[in-house]
Amino acid sequence: MLTISQLAAYAGVTVRAVRHYHKIGLLPEPERDPSGYRTYDAAAVVRLIRIRTLADAGVPLARVQELLDAGPEEFAGGIQEIDKSLRAEIRRLGETRRRLARLAAGEHLALPQSVVAYLDRLRGLGVEESYIELERDAWILIAAQVPHLIDSLIAKKHEELDDPDMVKLYGLLSGALDWPADDPRIVEVADIMERLMIRAVGAGEAGADDGVDDQFVDLLDTTMVQSSPNAARLLAILEQRGWKGWTRIERVPADRLPTESPPP
Q1: How far is it, in rounded angstroms, from Cα 10 to Cα 31?
Q2: pLDDT tens digits, 72-84
Q3: Which of 102, 181, 199, 220 is deepest in the core (most CB within 10 A)?
Q4: Up-side HSE of residue 29: CA atoms within 13 Å toward CB?
Q5: Burial class for 11, CB neighbours closer than 10 Å (0-12, 13-18, 19+)
């Protein structure tokens, strides 16, 4: 006959586990000997090994009792049912891992692949990550607001990157977040943007209906302005020259042009 410590050792579990199995009814508690100790036989070892094997395989303890007392066919059916549940759980956990991996990658969680590829193209041009993060957040908003337009908008952005002026603009904007307020390169940025706007007007693209409502455009523009003091200065310079907006290019009517000089 075996003591509880010997039983636990033979079955490869702890004494605490044996006592827990007694408590929940998985392992019958034997009578105590005249000295007050529990003693176990070989049948107890076999049952405990079966309990440990099922538990280690991921079978919930609530099902272990049912399987231990089942006949061969019922036991096989129960195992198949548990296996089906485990495979479903594995698929769920696999999807959770994939989502976590996308989350670790930042933009992959909330953006379609076309936008991710565009941001990667910007990285390839040497655009700093701090500016790419601003673009990423803007695209997350756009993807949530007008998901059906994303692919066409991104296709247009790729076309724009074929323009040397646009590439140069990104190169400048990449570091503009950290420029001092009076940095003369802001004027250079304004010059490039004005050239791009003039070409957009010539192509009939300025002021075109892009499917995005005005309130959402204002939200995007406000987000950009709040990103850096230089952004507000840049837009003020452009407005003095007759242009308005960042997300959507618009001509400012002559009678609505600001009369004050823009910030230097």
Answers
A1: 20
A2: 788 888 888 888 8
A3: 220
A4: 11
A5: buried
Beta bridge partners of 89: none
Q: Are 150 and 111 in contact, with CB atoms under 8 Å apart?
A: no
Q: How far apart are CA 117 and CA 161, in angstroms?
A: 13
Domain ranges within the chain, ordered by starting residue: 4-103, 107-256
**pLDDT one-digit tens code per residue, 17-60:** 999 999 988 888 888 888 888 888 888 998 899 898 888 887 88
Sign (positive or negative) of CA dihedral 154, 159, 160, 165: positive
In CATH, 4-103 is 1.10.1660.10: yes
Q: Cα–Cα distance between 247 and 206 in angstroms, integer?
A: 11
Euclidean distance between CA atoms 63 and 194, whole angstroms? 72
Task: Look at the pTM and tell me if it is higher than 0.70.
Answer: no
- The DSSP H or E segment spanning 148 is none
Bridge partners of 243, per DSSP, are 251
